[in-house]
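Query form — protein Large ribosomal subunit protein bL33m

QUESTION: What is the three-dimensional structure of this chain?
INPUT:
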Amino acid sequence: MAVRARSRIVIARLFSSAGTGFAYTTVRPRIADRLVLMKYDPIVKRHVLFRERGSSKS
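ANSWER: The structure tokens for Large ribosomal subunit protein bL33m are given below.
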């Protein structure tokens, strides 16, 4: 069986640093570092830091 080539992008799950469990899903290039973004968390009703944690299968 042939080896499957790895894609150039990854699906990244961004989890709220406020500890609410809210998460965004986005894509990033495989060669880039893990994402850290300021985004809106509707549970605490403010912008908080979201960090990439783990990974989804793509």
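ADDITIONAL NOTE: Residues 6 and 41 are 32 Å apart (CA to CA).
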